[in-house]
Target: DNA-binding protein
Amino acid sequence: MSQSKSKSSSQSRSASKKDSSKVHKLALRGSSKVVNEFFEYSINTILFQRGVYPAEDFTAVKKYGLTMMVTADDQVKAYIKKIISQLKEWMYGGKISKLVVVITSKETGEHVERWQFDVQIFGKSSKGSSSKKSGDQENAQAETSEPPTDKTTEEIQAEIQSIFRQITASVTFLPMLDGNCTFNVLVYADADSDVPLEWGDSDAKEIKNGEKVQLRSFSTSNHRVDTLVSYNVHRLAD
Model:
């Protein structure tokens, strides 16, 4: 809907302006697809690397020049597919500012890890956004910034590879997850986003007195994604 609105607002412009606008929209759509796929593989990688589900519940696929593990469990697959499908709409509309994966202990209900992916859309005006889904009430700011110089697909892939290697290596400093755990995905979307009925508001599910580690980022011509993991440092002493 947002793309059709911007299209109609530029109808009075010259043909060359229209063509340029169309190219930009195609570039934004392609960039959104890259970010969306990154989120899908990030969720799967976190679930596998952190042992939220047994290793035998995953299968290996090739992506980004790496061997990636994705869930083979039908219920988990369906849940992730539902999230990514809705995320796709919001991404194409430029309405996402953050995606968070929270790992929670089933026994205690304590949030033990929080993986946060901040999304910056280049050229987007700063405005408040509230979360939709198991999302948060918290407002987020989408900063306006100049886009980077054009990157090749190989350069973007190399940056994404570095992030996944860091997620894999995170087992060296993250405390072991004890007992059974579950996970939630929170999405911060603009307040004017259309939200499916099954998505509800949620608190931020922050880690109390948690330690934070900033991981690498990647960027396209339209988006920048920064990665941060928070964890319960007290479990190191247990």
Residues 15-49 form the longest helix (35 residues). The first strand starts at residue 58 and ends at 63. The chain has four helices and eleven strands.
